Amino acid sequence: MTRFAPLLLPDRGQPAHAIEWIAATDNEAWLRGQTGVARAQLAAQRFAGKPGSHAILTDGSDAWRVVAVPPAESGPWVLARLAETLPAGTYRVTGGGGDPLGWLLGQYRFDRYRKAEGEGPRVLLTGDVARLEETLRIASATAWVRDLVNTPAGDLGPAELEAEAEALGKRHGAAVTVRRGDELTQAYPMIHAVGRAAPRERAPRLIELRWGDPDAPRLAIVGKGVCFDTGGLDLKPSAAMRLMKKDMGGAAHALALAELIMAAAMPVRLHLLIPAVENAVSGDAFRPGDVLRSRAGLTVENTNTDAEGRLILGDALTRAGEENPELILDFATLTGAARVALGPDLPPLFSDDEALATDLLAAGTALGDPLWRLPLWDGYDEMLKSEVADMVNAPDGGFAGAVTAALFLRRFVPKGTAWAHLDVFAWRPASKPGRPKGGDAFGLRACYQVLKARYAG
């Protein structure tokens, strides 16, 4: 994992290169005011004062400074491009401006399988010492999500996901329990059905972590942990299967949020649940048309083995509800319909709790970590009707696919419990400053902010 601590240090007056902002509205006047060597240097670098551009000015000595125009995109990413492109060294933003989080994440690299590139670290000095440690924690949590999602399924199966949870528990003194393989047959039948076709060493499991004072408010976080998704007997085409290493992105988000909660010593009783499976193909694979029993006692007609994520989440949400939490958050790379509706950058948020939904949306907007609310439309609940069971897992026709998936999950959440479901993509198909192509966290910072305000504010 990228080490961020050396990249953000308290400003104690150390020698540093200055970063000076030029307001986009004043850039022409500023450029006209430059003379002599400075004008020549700006011309040599073809600096025209466009948003997001920068230039380096020197007086001929080892000292030099950066002049930059803020990018059009605001939020935490203002400093990200500078962190990606400036020479190695130590910097200070004069006059303030720019979230250090973008500086840190602009230097994230996934180099597990190749030699690290780059000429050295770019260090930022900050006067906001009070927020330094939390900024580092959020950057590290985001990088952990990226690393987990970027890791191929051959190196990150259910057992490895369990190991990540065990390591998390050891870091914070949390208790971790795991039920695996045939232990799930009666207790968590839908998790077992989805994962039973995988080899023994990649057997399905339910991972649970508990932390905090048992008398504190109870908070449950659930993350979909499909470590690879072939689609099962409803086999995906190769183009759709290639990125299915990321189908455990919900579990990655859940782990990272749990890390943030425990590192902040939030006064809650945390219950983290990760159903971890591989949706494989073998003679033991569950079949289209099978009727599955759930932990909740409901029966589900399996109409599509590629709609497996909601099945394993159903059992995990049921387990979460048995401990009477006052709030449940779940993260899942659940539907292609969500991507069709909102694209890769904007996760749909589903919740029947108006206060929770409002808080999450507001936090996402404030932090540059946006969410978009989609409806739990009761009128579509009948689309889950089955002729032979209590419900189907995937209605025919494909209409409102993200909505019907969320409605399916809602049936396993205790009535009256505040609950939010985030249908995250966990992947960036194209790079942006501070956000390289590949695995990424969506909604993580928004959820953490809301939990802080509710429980640690």
Automatic annotation (TrEMBL):
SUPFAM superfamilies hit by this protein: Zn-dependent exopeptidases
Molecular functions (GO terms): manganese ion binding; metalloaminopeptidase activity
Domain Cytosol aminopeptidase: 304-311
GO CC annotation terms, alphabetical: cytoplasm
Entry keyword set: Aminopeptidase, Hydrolase, Manganese, Protease
InterPro entries (alphabetical): Leucine_aapep/pepB, Macro_dom-like, Peptidase_M17_C, Peptidase_M17_N_1
Gene Ontology BP annotations: proteolysis
Pfam families: Peptidase_M17 (PF00883), Peptidase_M17_N_1 (PF21337)
CDD domains reported in the protein's UniProt record: Peptidase_M17
Domain of life of the source: Bacteria
EC number: 3.4.11.1
Family: Belongs to the peptidase M17 family.
Protein name: Leucyl aminopeptidase
Annotated source species: Sphingomonas abaci
